[in-house]
Design a protein that fits this description.
Elements: H1 5-11, H2 13-23, H3 29-45, H4 48-52, H5 55-67, H6 80-99, H7 105-129, H8 140-156
This protein binds iron/sulfur cluster (SF4).
Iron/sulfur cluster (SF4) binds at residues 50, 54, 56-57, 135-136, 139, 141-142.
């Protein structure tokens, strides 16, 4: 599997957040910074972040592609309603956890680190038993970028 130089660099943010975040929860704010960055970027470049810069996407390309069973994604992964259900379930869980965190900076950082851990674990399971980028078909952040990218396209037409 070929991958880009930018992915090799960006990949390192994943262990930094997942392992470093266990000791320094404020590293969770890197996730927030990335979210702001790719939401703005997606308005101009659609899912450019996903294919070139996302640390988890890079990890899936660089490592999971070598051990994936490489099967077809389940059909439901392509269903828009299902993708939005995953999106709202994820966002609802995220908001609930932030509200339950006590409001401290470190507490909120822990929420982002743990959400990153959970979604990475899911992406690894799907990546092995289905397709290495299988998770990216239903990733809430991918769905969001795709939608924002289309908004701009539709306005231009
Ligand atoms: S779909 Fe999600 S995990 Fe996949 S590359 Fe995009 S943001 Fe990263």
């Amino acid at each position: 599997m070929k991958y880009k130089k930018s992915q090799v660099i960006m990949f390192w943010f994943l262990p930094l957040i997942l392992i470093g975040g266990l000791f320094y929860p404020l590293l969770g704010y890197l996730v927030v910074g990335m979210m702001v960055f790719f939401i703005v970027l997606s308005f101009f470049r659609g899912r450019y972040w996903c294919w070139n810069l996302c640390p988890r996407g890079s990890f899936l390309d660089i490592f999971l592609s070598n051990i994936s069973l490489n099967r077809q994604n389940p059909k439901i992964f392509g269903n828009q309603l299902f993708r939005w259900l995953v999106f709202f379930a994820f966002m609802g869980f995220l908001v609930y956890r932030i509200l339950s965190s006590g409001g401290s900076l470190a507490g909120i950082g822990v929420v982002f680190v743990s959400m990153c851990l959970i979604t990475t674990a899911i992406s690894i399971i799907i990546g092995i038993i289905v397709k290495h980028r299988g998770w990216c078909a239903i990733c809430p952040m991918g769905t969001l970028q795709e939608k924002i990218g289309r908004l701009r396209k539709n306005r231009k037409e």
